[in-house]
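Q: For a teaching handout, I want to show students what a protein-ligand complex looks like in token form. Below are the inputs, and the small molecule is 7PJ. Please produce the holo structure.
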Amino acid sequence: MQLQLGRHTLDLAQPQVMGVLNRTPDSFSDGGVFADFAAAVRRAHAMAGEGAAIIDIGGESTRPGAEAVSVQQELDRVIPLIERLAGEMDTPVSIDTGKPEVMREAVRAGAVMINDVYALRLPGALTAALACRVPVCLMHMQGEPRGMQQNPRYADVVTEVRDFLEERTRVCEAAGIPRSQILVDPGFGFGKTLAHNLALLRRLQELALLGQPLLVGLSRKSSIGTLLGGVPPMERLHGSVAAAVVAVLRGAHIIRAHDVKATVEALKVAAAARLDGC
Ligand code: 7PJ
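A: Here is the structure, written as tokens, with 7PJ included.
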């Protein structure tokens, strides 16, 4: 399995790491350290040096209860950074957004992938993504970021997430996005309790069977903190790496992570010991 990202071909037979770069002052996971432009540029280069295959840039926090940002604010946060990085870096850049205007401008600025936690469900997003002609990651989320963690409920979370991702893939393909450019993601922590997240991780293979590149983000998420007795985001490194290894052994192709070096090294060892993606 391969993924074409601009001039780069990503080999998905090996696990790949997507490095997270938040340009948000209210990010839960890094406290907004990379809101500063120069710090963000340095961080992107550092992650590329550590083996990130993609740098994912976001300008709106989707943590539970986060403030919404305007289109202009989001553009101001991400576009200059994407222009700079796409011009000087050999690592592909993706844009983490649900807003059609931001998708368009980001791809114009050099982003080669769209990562949308709304799975192109916001008005105009599907049309915008289609026009951009870049791969899209469709993520599952129950509800909206503001209230999604209040009372998430499922009859069978794995089946519901799988059916949702299958349906969104079908809708996107029918609209004209080639299947080869569609990634799927269960959206750990997006309208899910610890039990839901664990069920998804245990049965991740059922999502791999959809046949699309499978991206997962568990890095520093609250489920990891809970399993470790309530530790804060900066103390979730080892737990996050363990979760990444489990995900890759159960069929994930791309791991979205803050701690690139640790994740890349762990996944190299995990991949070498893997029988055939089991
Ligand atoms: C995810 C994401 C994820 C994808 C965020 C955080 C919260 N995109 N954007 N998957 N999470 N595709 O970084 O913890 O899990 S924002």
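A: Two things your students might notice: The chain has one domain: 2-275. The mean pLDDT is 95.
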